[in-house]
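Recall the central idea of this unit: under ordinary conditions, the amino acid sequence of a chain determines the structure it adopts. In this exercise we apply that idea directly, starting from the sequence alone.
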Amino acid sequence: MNIKAGEIVSIRHCSGTKLYKSIVLDTIDDILSVKLFEEVALLNCSPGDPVVLGCELDNEVYMGSCNLLDIDKDNNKLSLKIDNYETITNKRLYERFPVSFYADVRIGESQKRNLVLVKNISINGLMINTKFDFPLYQELKFELHLDIKLHLKATVIRKSKDTNNYEYGLKIIYTDVNTPKLLKKLILILKQEQEDFIKKMKEPN
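Accordingly, the structure predicted from this sequence is:
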């Protein structure tokens, strides 16, 4: 995906309730500077947050999983580092789908809720960012903050830390036969929403 200055892209951040139309101002390798058409102040952003970037190139819809590097609220600008990107045409459900939304997490049988940011999700697992330090192989219970009410149980199988957050890779543990169907429906809804928004962005006003 060769994004150039002037490209129209979509931005999704967990603090917003929708996708945001934006324009690429500058690119250096995997670092992008984008300007939102709406107020950045509408988003409650922090460096290290996961951000989803979408665009259409050569009639293909691409999704990029990004980390937020910097925010310039006065000029409605975000600086993003692209971790990975790929076309979402015929994307398989076991592959990670880039997202950005909140989830409540409980450790084992504890009732204490810890707020985390979900960075990507698939039918088999998910990746989260948080300031909380969870041990490897810890079992976590998730409640996702989305239109579809979804509870998941998952085990930490990978852990790393950068300047801002811990990042965890988790494997989902299914205990209810209906949960995979709900998760599949959720991923398909997010995919369709992203495709529709990007196609609409390209239409003349």
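The radius of gyration is 17 Å.
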